[in-house]
């Protein structure tokens, strides 16, 4: 049984364990990465595959990158500071209240 995703694209989240935050840009209803990637996660912290997984434009204090994270490891991030990942501005706009919305990139 596949669960309904708790988060959606445009939300800013933080990892429960590791010190990074990011913007969700896509959601897989259940694990959709490679078995090699999955097996590389230490068994004691390896999440179940039968939950939503999120694609993030992520950042920590040192760098920006893309991350793939299980729902169980994410919480909403209340931090008001904007994210600095360079891909965010190509796909999302930030409104005056600090919320991110997907850009309308269709030709007019």
Offer a quick outline of the entry.
This protein is mainly beta. It has 2 helices and 7 strands; from the N terminus they run E-E-H-E-E-E-H-E-E. It has a 5-stranded antiparallel beta sheet with strand order 4-3-2-1-5, with no helix packed on it. A two-stranded antiparallel ribbon has the order 6-7.
Write the layout of secondary structure elements.
Elements: E1 12-15, E2 21-28, H1 35-39, E3 53-59, E4 64-70, E5 74-76, H2 88-91, E6 92-94, E7 100-102
Antiparallel strand pairs: 1-2, 1-5, 2-3, 3-4, 6-7
Structure write-up:
With 108 residues, the protein is mainly β. The chain has one domain (12-102). The chain has two helices and seven strands. It has helices at residues 35-39, 88-91; strands at residues 12-15, 21-28, 53-59, 64-70, 74-76, 92-94, 100-102. The model has no long low-confidence stretch (mean pLDDT 92).
Keywords:
108 residues, mainly beta, five-stranded antiparallel sheet, two-stranded antiparallel ribbon, 2 helices, globular
């Amino acid at each position: 049984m596949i669960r309904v995703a708790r988060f959606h694209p445009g939300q800013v989240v933080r990892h429960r364990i590791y010190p990074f935050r990011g913007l969700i840009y896509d959601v897989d209803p259940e694990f959709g990465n490679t078995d090699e990637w999955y097996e590389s996660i230490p068994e004691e912290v390896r999440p179940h595959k039968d939950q939503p997984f999120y694609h993030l434009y992520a950042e920590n204090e040192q760098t920006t990158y893309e991350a793939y994270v299980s729902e169980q490891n994410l919480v909403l991030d209340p931090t008001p500071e904007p994210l600095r990942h360079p891909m965010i501005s190509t796909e999302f706009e930030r409104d005056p209240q600090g919320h991110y919305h997907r850009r309308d990139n269709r030709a007019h």
